[in-house]
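Good day; I would like, with your permission, to put a structural problem before you. I would ask you to consider whether the tokens describe a fold that such a sequence might reasonably adopt. The full record is reproduced below for your convenience:
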Amino acid sequence: MLDRLKELKLRREDLEAQLADPAVYGDGPRLAAIQRELKELTPVVDASRALEAAERRREEAETLLHDPEMKALAQEELSEAKAEAERLRGELKRLLLPRDPNDGRNVILEIRAGVGGEEAALFAGELLRMYTMYAQRRGWRTEVLSASETELGGVKECGVLIEGEGAYSRLKFESGVHQVKRVPETESSGRIQTSTATVAVLPEAEEVDVEIDPRDLQIDTYRSSGAGGQHINKTESAIRITHLPTGTVVTCQDERSQYKNKEKAMRVLRSRLYQQERERRDAAAASERKSQVGGAWRSEKIRTYRFLQSQVVEHRIGLTSYRLDAVLNGELDEIIDALVTADAAEKLGNKDG
């Protein structure tokens, strides 16, 4: 670890020297790359320097132990320095873990109603609202790429682009089956119903990430319509793109412009193909949709929202939150922070093992 830290310190010094060169400011891409790498290195180097300071405090306190008049104070200082050094070593181990190369990407979030009919669609709509509000809390920008709604205001399926710093690094833990247990408003007998919705979190792919041959695409246009045939568009602006080699189909009808719908559909298609390639490469370790949060503690049903008890149960780590309303209003950090911590602990365990 010490060799690695020395290497990172030298790298940061090199980047800072490059940043002092006026010529860099005339090269936008290079400047952005330097600033991005510096931002990633800074927490590691700062923690390393803090660890060195804690070790110096420990050594000074051990020296003072031999002075009878300073012994009590030195013992207290020694205890604090040791605890601080231990904490910083743990933090450095976490910071030095291999970084997911997609963590800095934007996200395409796809939500689909599962088992439960209209109730599942209503739940999917609530999840869409929850993630939209969470994005607002984080200062991220959201844009609906596609949506299919029901007459009662539910969501059969939707795709949302979420742009902002750390979007994928946080939201990748949300992939999986979400379950809700409650008495539906349409249920006259008062029986609790279990419904599901699936969430897929895809890192947004750039054009350079996925090469798509236009000859591999079948593009169809049709008239868009809302729930129950409402909001019928008189022009064929809706787009359906089929990637023939993989059979992947993407539709978009939210915009009145055929061009804009095609542009949005291509963004989704690129991200799905990028994800498929990742899953193919990682097939030995299981597909990304089933492993976005980490190892043995993952399961298909990742979370249950229990309205009667006002609970949110995160099954992967055994966490129960009694703040159901707050979570559905976008206060997800408590759960996501716990998942991030558990994921880092598991990786550290695998690394140490």
In short: Residues 227-234, 285-299 have pLDDT under 50 and may be disordered.
